[in-house]
Amino acid sequence: MEPSRSDDALVDVLDVLLRDGVVLRADVVVSVAEIPLVGIKLTAVVAGMETMTEYGLFEEWDTNRRAAAVARRQYGNRRRDREIDGERGRRTEEETGSRRTR
């Protein structure tokens, strides 16, 4: 019996990572002659954005991104409205000018 390789295994692992997430923590201490010089505390989280925001991670980032998206959409709508109004104004001027020349 030979081991078989399943392509679904990788997909299942990614699904669990994105849905549930994983937290990796490490403490590193750099020392010379048994005298600690630098201490580093590292935390890495791997999860989908929905999971991270559900647990309160990246909440500020998510709020800022959503606000920026709304602002871009509103700016785009105002800009489009100005362009439409500008075209209407040009058409009105052209029509008025063509009527005057008749």
Automatic annotation (TrEMBL):
Q: Which residues form the signal peptide?
A: none
List, as start-end ranges, the regions of compositional bias called Basic and acidic residues: 78-102
Top-rank taxon of the source lineage equals: Archaea
Q: Where is this region: Disordered?
A: 71-102
Q: Where in the cell is it found?
A: Gas vesicle
Pfam families given in the database record: Gas_vesicle
Name the keywords, alphabetized: Gas vesicle
* An annotated GO cellular component: gas vesicle
**UniProt key word tRNA processing:** no
PANTHER family xrefs: GAS VESICLE PROTEIN A1, GAS VESICLE STRUCTURAL PROTEIN 2-RELATED
Annotated family: Belongs to the gas vesicle GvpA family.
Which NCBIfam families does this entry report, sorted A to Z? halo_gas_GvpM
Q: What is this protein called?
A: Gas vesicle protein GvpM
Task: Tell me the organism.
Answer: Natribaculum luteum
